[in-house]
Structure of Iron uptake porin:
Amino acid sequence: MKKISNLSVLLGLSVLAAATGVSAENQSQAKVQSKASSTPVLQASLPTTEVKVNESETIRAINTELNRPKQEVAQNVTSVSQLSDVKPTDWAFTALQSLVERYGCIAGYPDRTFRGKQATSRYEFAAGLNACLDKINEIISAGLADKVSKEDLATLQKLQEEFAAELATLRGRVDALDAKVTKLEAQQFSTTTKLSGLAFFNVTGATGNNAVLNPAGAPQATPNITMSGLVWLTLNTSFTGKDSLVTQLAAGNGNSPFNNYTAGSLFNTTGVPFTDQQAGSGANLFVLRELSYTFPVFEKASLVVGPRVNFYKYFDNIRFIYPWNTSFNSINSTLLTNAKRGAGAVFLTPLGNQFDFKIGYLAESNEFGTNGSASNPNQGLFGGNNALTAELGFKPSDAFKFRLLYSRTNLAANAGVVGGAGFTPSLPGTVINANNGQSDVFVANFDWLVSKGFGLFGRYGYGTTNVNLTAGGSTNVVMQTFQVGAAFPDLFKEGAQALISFGMPFNFTSGKGSLATGAGDGGTQYDLELSYVYPISKNISLVPSFYTIFSPNNFNSNPTVFVGNLQAVFSF
């Protein structure tokens, strides 16, 4: 039966040389793998009782099999001489030769070995036997019965009778699996779309007093402790198995207490934590957080295109930094951070085994109101705020990666103001009476897994922005930023991670005199972050985090602000 043959493929089942009548005491010494299989043979004997199939485990097993690299597929064998570990002096050589060359119902492992000394169970033998019976049935059905000798048929009939109980049990298992698969197919959400989600509960508090000045130099009220939520719902659709249409919806009512101290021209320069925020355009309103389509181009490259492409997923990534356990200032370089998403495209390709290259163009897309450049005919893809970003990655080993980025940003004026909140992180301050601006940003970062439980990371950014003034002429502002940190993967529990990070969000090295806001009183802000992701179960994690903000908003006169957050993360 074909069903049994399929089961033998999934289990990597083997059968002895049935056509020559192998003795029972030698049955555990030889292996014959089903022709379509590449999965190594199970070492333990299967139980004699009915096996309960876990549906989620079944799906994961099927996905694993479908996504197995091409080089793992078993090699077809047309001659026993192609099996490198089988010699003419082996006791089963003649038997293998018969099965390979007369019936073609075995295959070698990917490395063209037979591995005949591995042990086998009666169930594995029975399933493999059935695979060879299927092959013989095909020969007979094709009108080639004369190709099968009476001796072979007699031997196979005896073996079939000997293993009748095992074959019946295997048929029952396959029938039960078919029933469960049918049920899953009938009840699944979609044949092409998978739904996943993340839900965040946040309890956040911040110290400070009424003397803390925002970037514009105005005092702010001390915030109270807050509790907020944020949900990301992601629909991932594939039409060919190699492409991916991502539709992500989000809703949230967060407003991190630290935002009280950044209100004004610089919205959310620290954002502690990143997920303690509204979803985009208002509290508890569903917004389209991402809408992009990824598909392969050329042999190994891929292209991402869409009206809402998430920048931080593709550029300036550090492997230890997750959005749900860090701040806005840590996800990407602070000279790139606010450009979280936009309309445009990203091209990604490997360059050999150690290098990779990415380049993307993004235009502001309704991120801060209804006048987003990409969807506004007065601005469009190229007339408003936009950025062209390229990254070259070097990975000499799995433990270390180094990245170089360059970004060219065009800054549109809003009511005569360039910079500040919005799509313009390359100028974290504001210049008034301006027409437009152009920025060049250079970023380098690395991450290094020094040992299994310890990693280091860091990044440095340098940017220069030229702002064209309405009165004629221009002004130039130069900035720099850095961040260093350490991570402790699997600390106290597998899947956990502790993180400590210290950074300078931005420091104006020249041109600060032309800034209306952002330069403070000449001070320099520094951020210290500590967080710990603790998985309670596969789908639930607790994330306590603590942030210390020195000289907030670049005012030396501002007191140090402390922010604490306890977050529960639910994934489904």
The two ends are 38 Å apart (CA to CA). The chain has two domains: 2-187, 193-571. The first strand starts at residue 75 and ends at 76. The chain is about 15% helix and 35% strand.
